[in-house]
Amino acid sequence: MSNQTWTEIMPENVEELLRSGREDVQLIDVRELDEYKEGHIPGVKLIPLSQLEVRHDEIERGKDAILICRSGGRSRQACEFLASHGHRKLQNMSGGMLSWKGEVVRN
User: Fold this and answer.
1) What's the whole-model pTM score?
2) Residue 47: which of 88, 9, 79 has the closest Cα?
């Protein structure tokens, strides 16, 4: 897809961004609530893919947005949906939480 408006980012690069303390990055978890409670990245915002159509305005357009799911498929769909609604600065976390080696919060 030549006009792709989003990119892939590796989980280790997401970890580096979090460690650097950058405030112009937002992490959006698009899994369902039960999956999120099983373990998520600290500070991530939960907007399930099933709710994205009505909640996408909660994602700040001026900041980079990294989309996260279990394996990378739903977050890829989220990137495509958001791009089609004018969002830019989108990144899909490759491999999703299955590939995440960093800190996880359970609640």
Assistant:
1) 0.94
2) 79
Decide if 79 is catalytic.
no
Provide the token pair at 43. Answer: 């500070």
- Bridge partners, 93 (sequence order): 9
Q: Using DSSP, state whether 106 is helix, strand or coil.
A: coil
DSSP 33-74: HHHHHH-B-TTPEE--GGGHHHHGGGS-TTSEEEEE-SSSHH
Q: What's the token pair of residue 19?
A: 């460690």
Among 30, 46, 69, 93, the one annotated catalytic: 69
Sign (positive or negative) of CA dihedral 64, 8, 39, 81: positive
Tens digit of pLDDT for each residue in 12-50?
Answer: 999 999 999 888 899 999 999 999 999 999 999 999 999
Q: Decide: 9 and 66 in contact? Cβ < 8 Å.
A: yes
- State the pairing for strand pair 90-93/6-9: parallel
Q: Which architecture characterizes domain 6-99 according to CATH? A: 3-Layer(aba) Sandwich (3.40)
